[in-house]
Amino acid sequence: MIKVALVEDDARIRLVLTEVVNAAKDCQCVGAYPTGASAVAMLPALKPDVILLDINLPDISGVDCVLKLAPQLPDTQIIMLTIYQDPELIFQALTAGAHGYLVKPVMPKKLLEAIREIRAGGAPMSPNIARAVIHSFHSKPSTPWPSAIIEDDALGPRENRVLNYLMEGLTYKEIAGELDISVWTVATYVRRIYEKLHVYSRRGIIAHYKATGGESSRP
Known about the structure:
This protein is α/β, with parallel strands linked by helices. It folds into 2 domains: 134 residues, Response regulator (Rossmann fold, 3-Layer(aba) Sandwich); 81 residues, Winged helix-like DNA-binding domain superfamily/Winged helix DNA-binding domain (Arc Repressor Mutant, subunit A). It has 10 helices and 5 strands. The protein has a 5-stranded parallel sheet, with helices on both faces. The N and C termini lie far apart (58 Å).
């Protein structure tokens, strides 16, 4: 049986998803939570195989849930199940550790196929999301990268420049505009920064530089 957990604040949708999962012979809903905080508190002990996770939750965002849960549940696959198709949110979720991204509404058959696919090592995505991700691989930086303000030996010059913008609080879209590159390219650099600095969020980056005495400033 594939153990599935749900994080969805809409009670009606949560009930429907629970019924869809439990109706499948090879799936079982082991938990359904209306808030991110309740999911973060309970899911590490349950160790579900798959989590269906909304982005827009009433307390903490779905992306923050991924950041908290992914390090604790390395064998759990997370599928974002949401109405949001904003490029920055998509890549924030995938960079944080989500393995799939489906846009509501999803037909029951397609949802169950996605659960099985992700357990088999796939990365299920709605067609329009998949097209956007594929497009990102065709996007390349079109301008030289200026020298970094903050420098970290673990990072290359391009990653350092993105790091500085993150420290200043810029969004992925704003960073893309500053550097004349795509949001998808920005997300790729952010993922590399997270991996190299062993952090899982922008807050983790800030904590890293406070600990090492680093600062961010621009003339």
